[in-house]
Amino acid sequence: MINDNYVVELRDATIYHTDAPFGRSSVEKYIREGEMVLSEVNLTVSPGEFVYLIGRVGSGKSSLLKTLYAEVPLLAGSGRIAGFDLRGLRRRQIPYLRRRIGIVFQDYQLLTDRNVFMNLYYVLKATGWRSEQEIRERIDKVLDVVQLEKKSYKMPFELSGGEQQRLVIARALLNKPQVLLADEPTGNLDPLTADGIMQLFQQIAARGCAVVMSTHNTALIENYPARAILFAQGRIREINLAEELA
């Protein structure tokens, strides 16, 4: 039974990895050509909750995140994120789903020919914002949150790795998401910079936006303890981090 009080909910879900395009017409292709990476997945995330996804490379963390942001369809079980039914989702609904969630990638995916402000401006215009005043106010707000308010004129190549990741987080926050999905967001960062990103994620969660973050960095987990989901042998289970790291 799906519960609307959760921002993320998966029940008895099966997660596939495949290169087939999204769409209900490709279900047979997924089942025929795809690789089942996780089964019997049960996961709930509440508003403002911070959740780690941990496990070895290839254990299914990224595939689960891709299912949540509709890169691949959910074919078995039930699931919802930010009010969207993942089983009944249609291709035309994906842009609207992604306006309710934030996605943070390890490789940034910034527009390299536009400065910080215009990277964010482009996203807001593309997602239906029309008022120039509201656009500027929103950009100012998210840049303040990520502490880049004095670098709005900088080009991406003029930013450090940590600053680029902060810009990615600012972009993810533009449409006031209910949940932020982060796939190894500190993987390319030095420990001090990674600490700053983790503190930022904690602040975001404290404001009510859930954060679901995949990582293999045990040092971060020890320094910033939170609920943890372990991926192993095609299953997931919640673990006690203090006991696991002892």
What's this model, at a glance?
This protein has 246 residues and is of the alpha/beta class.
Describe the structure.
- The chain has 246 residues and is α/β, with parallel strands linked by helices.
- It has a domain of 70 residues.
- 35% of the residues lie in helices and 25% in strands.
- It has 9 helices and 10 strands.
- Strands 6-7-8-3-9-10 form a 6-stranded mixed beta sheet, with helices on both faces. The protein has a 4-stranded antiparallel beta sheet with strand order 2-1-4-5.
- Helix 7 links the parallel strand 7 and strand 8.
- Helix 5 crosses helix 6 and helix 6 runs parallel beside helix 7.
- It is globular.
- The termini are far apart.
Annotate the secondary structure layout:
Elements: E1 8-17, H1 27-33, E2 35-45, E3 50-55, H2 61-68, E4 76-81, E5 84-85, H3 94-98, E6 101-104, H4 116-126, H5 132-145, H6 161-173, E7 179-183, H7 191-206, E8 210-215, H8 218-223, E9 227-232, E10 235-239, H9 241-245
Q: What about the largest sheet?
A: 6 strands, mixed
Oligomeric state as shown: single chain
Gyration radius from CA atoms, angstroms = 18 Å
Unreliable spans are none
- Give me the count of strands: 10
Tell me the strand percentage band. 15-25%
Count up the helices. Answer: 9
Q: Indicate the overall shape.
A: globular
SSE string, helices as H and strands as E: EHEEHEEHEHHHEHEHEEH
Given helix and strand content, the structural type is alpha/beta
